[in-house]
Design goal:
Helix content is 34%, strand content 31%. It has one helix and three strands; from the N terminus they run E-E-E-H.
Length: 95
């Protein structure tokens, strides 16, 4: 039986009332022993000045956009890993 691997995603929400902006940073930490890798992605949301202030909506939108960007980066990393595995080793002439 294989041992489960745990990956942790941390989302930091940073609202800015002055600019009506909310920023989010999503960070994936690979929990495998001996690995200290992390992938980061960001997202933001801007409130229209005519809209009623609802900070939780800005946080949700910014976090969703950060996680979506993180997923795209993870997919790109996986595609790179697959392309390396699919590439046959270079033939050596033995010289």
């Amino acid at each position: 039986m294989t041992t489960p691997t745990h990956w942790l995603v941390d989302i930091e929400i940073m609202p800015e009332d002055v600019n009506r902006m909310t920023y989010a940073l999503a960070r994936l930490r690979d929990g495998r022993e001996g690995h200290a890798s992390a992938i980061e992605a960001s997202g933001h949301a801007r409130r229209n000045p005519a809209d009623f202030p609802r900070p939780e909506l800005g946080a949700e939108l910014a976090a969703t956009r950060a996680v979506t960007a993180l997923a795209r980066k993870m997919q790109a990393h996986a595609a790179e890993d697959l392309s390396v595995l699919a590439t046959p080793p270079a033939h050596s002439s033995g010289w």
